Amino acid sequence: MPMERKDIDLIKELMPCVRCGQCRSVCPVFHAKGVESDAPRGKVAIVRALLEGKLEPTKSLIEKLDQCLLCRTCVQDCPSGVRVDRIIIAARERLAALRGVPLRKKVLTRWLMPNLNRLQPLIALASRIQNLFGGKVAAGNYRRPRFRLPLIGKRLLPHLTGQTLHTLVRKNRKTRKGTQRVLFFSGCMITHVNPGIGEAVMEVLERNGVDVVVPREQVCCGLPSLAAGDRETFEGLRQQNLKVLRENDCDAIITACASCGSTLKEHYGPELPMKIYDFSEFLVDQIKMSPPLLRVEKTVTYHDPCHLRKAQKIKDQPRSLLKRIPGLSFHDVKDPDRCCGFGGTFSLNHPSLSQQINDTTVKQLVETGAELVVTSCPGCMLHLANGLYQCGSKAQVVHLAELLAASYGPMAEDGETE
Amino acid sequence: MTLSKDLLSRIEKIVGPANFFPAETDRICYATDSSLLSQMNNWMPDLVVRVLTSEQVSQVLALANEFLVPVVPRGAGTGQCCGAVAQQGGIMMDLTGMNRIVSMDLDNLQVTVQPGIVHAELNKELAGHGFFFPPDPGSTKMCTLGGMVSNNSSGQRSVKYGTTKQYILGLEVVLPTGEVMVTGGVRSRALKSVAGYDLTSLMVGSEGTLGVVTRIRLKVLPLPERRGLVIAFFDQLESTGQAVVQVFRRRLFPSAIEIMDQSAIVAANLYKPELALPDAEAMLLFEVDGSPPDVAYQAKAISEVCAQFARKVEWTDDPERLKALWAARGVVGAAAGRVKPGATRVYIGEDICVPVNAVAQALRNIRAIGAKYNVPIVTYGHIGDGNLHAAPIIDPNEAIEIEKVKKIADEIHHMALDLDGTTTGEHGVGLARAEYMEEELGFSLHVMRRIKRLLDPRNILNPGKMSLDDGPLPEK
């Protein structure tokens, strides 16, 4: 494979790796599979050999480089500071340039995800016929397929309400006059699949005197395209979102999806027109919060999304918020660094591996004895809910914003707690 | 080397298709360990197999003998001496799948494990029962017990607890011919034995040249109730050596005494900024362990001794701070590259061991060698037993830097021998230090070669390593 300028940059990323192997001790894919080529150190060796022309881009090589969750557990632990995630993304881009983006990924990341706003009528239609495909489980938030579905198999699907966050906002929101105004970058999952989380985010923010704007024109953050090596699609989405962000004059951008948050923070660069915060980060670090008062008599644990804990270095703020909810009994997991195994399209492309990784994480969550598993990423939520359901656990998965909103209680028309 | 179809299909039958890796994508991942030498050469094996039983090991070795194909046993591949790489091609035997604790006999202070178990995993399990396996390499989170036995590894606590060999009660070893041998008594659960030649000790540190270790009977010790750490910062390198000598003279016996020079302190701060270590010429870490009053007494006494020589002394028994400091010390080697952006740490000349009272001189010499070649060298190590790790920081894509660092390593190795030390304290010989063995070992190297030829007559097991293949046998 001939070297290009980009390859030389990539080699510079590879260089700090001293092959110490510390990544073997933390990589969830390596733990599940157990062969050196599954470890980050092995993948780095494969990328290096590919660039040096010692390996050809064979099917097995592409498969190996595809089997990375981009969870960054190895990056967090790497003494030499090797950015394995960047290396894998760059290598996938190089392979996509040589061999094209695989059709299955293209359908999702180039055609489906970027066009969800336009496809909304289809999602609404799907919500009306979803009962044909799956019955409700797990407190009605999820559905279990009645038969094996393509890519999904028999894993839980989210229950579709037929609403998007935008329609809910249009119906329910009134103009308020807060001390700050923020833009909520809600992301695909919250906008189209779990709008209830978005409502909860808005409610909590408004309860704290923060007005929220949710632009309808926002699109997918682009992480699925980026992870697939499809830089072109990612760049298109990035530009569209930047345009939307520039058009809205706000004090800050808020995200409640760990993956969206990390993508905007890291890949949108200095062109971002305002500061961006995760929901929990904003509440704890940026404003003086009024305390939630309603008691929530539940035992809870918290699952750290990788893109929050490892990418955004946010781990204390969600726990701090949980501890402010009266009545809550909090039990932390033994190993909070564990990835849930979702990895976006990873869970579709490598379902059994994804499930295997999930099993270990879910086991630890169950061991806490929690009735509620709280997290900050709708992707993790879906995968954890499935894992808990499959292992027979009765624990429910909720977003941190939903739990906080419950403790603030319903809001009266005049903005006071009822 | 091309392996015949017949051999390949017979090996696949032995290990099963799930553990048989002929593809280049897999093989390239086994071409290196941490050593610069392996990075420069990328010796790819012709086949990788994962073995799960000693029977499989035996069958593969018997076949390799029949077909005259080299076999290289390998654990996690965290070595730094180019020992577990297939310089002559052949079969790479990955033993990390054999990672079970076979039995725990804690009443008799021993456990039996398979070779692929990771050191930290073993100690985590033992800690749950109040015991530990004392040797503690910096690579604890990833290195395997098999690798530790094969390299006679040690680490920070060797000053009090010694090296791996002191804890190996017996081994199951598959010889290069495929025969299986149990050392230390076939049924023994005794904690000591002088029955027969000490073949256990022969195997420990033999770097996979005499046999493949498939089972390890280990001695374990009760876990100390408490640990404490004294940290002292010095303005003079010589003062560090004086402090260590005085601590021993005061009849204090720390479990570890570590040194980090100025650049290693910088590297640790870059890796874990929350440590906030102050700038100093060198820093010593004294770990003490025992009952809580004993730890407090020792820590206080060591602090008093150090105060005579050091600019600043502090001590802690806070488990979180202890964990963070040891974590930073443990990986300072791999983190060393952070001191020079755009460069990386290379493993060459990294494991000399000198008499304790020559450590300060050795540190000065290393600095002078670095200055001579204008290459930054981060140095740290186990001052308690004189084992120093020098980490040159270079751009390995520059040929001139590679040439320089080879000369640096050569000078460091000769310097260690001149100070009556050794070229390797705990990492092993492999290929990286083979050229110094004649000078360092003298006639005993020739005896080693005789042993190698006796046990591995067709020279199929990890050939080319430790200078065992080179040179004629001396005449009578």
Describe this structure in words.
- The complex is a heterodimer of chains A (418) and B (476).
- Chain A is built from 21 helices and eleven strands.
- By secondary structure, chain A is α/β, with parallel strands linked by helices.
- Among the domains of chain A are: 95 residues, Alpha-helical ferredoxin (Fumarate Reductase Iron-sulfur Protein, Chain B, domain 2, Orthogonal Bundle), CATH 1.10.1060.10; 110 residues, 3-Layer(aba) Sandwich (Rossmann fold).
- In chain B, helix 1 packs antiparallel against helix 4.
- Chain B is 35% helix and 19% strand.
- Chain B has 17 helices and 19 strands.
- Among the domains of chain B are: 90 residues, Uridine Diphospho-n-acetylenolpyruvylglucosamine Reductase, domain 2 (2-Layer Sandwich); 122 residues, 2-Layer Sandwich (Uridine Diphospho-n-acetylenolpyruvylglucosamine Reductase, domain 3), CATH 3.30.465; 109 residues, Alpha-Beta Plaits (2-Layer Sandwich).
- In chain B, a hairpin with a 5-residue loop joins strand 8 and strand 9.
- The model of chain B has no long low-confidence stretch (mean pLDDT 94).
- Chain B starts with a helix and ends in a 21-residue tail after the last helix.
- Chain B is of the alpha+beta class.
- In chain B, the strands form four sheets. In chain B, strands 12, 13, 14, 15, 16, 17, 18 and 19 form an eight-stranded antiparallel β-sheet that branches. In chain B, strands 5-6-10-8-9 form a five-stranded antiparallel β-sheet. In chain B, strands 1-2-4-3 form a four-stranded mixed β-sheet.
- Chains A and B meet through helix 3 and helix 4 of A and helix 2, helix 13 and strand 16 of B.
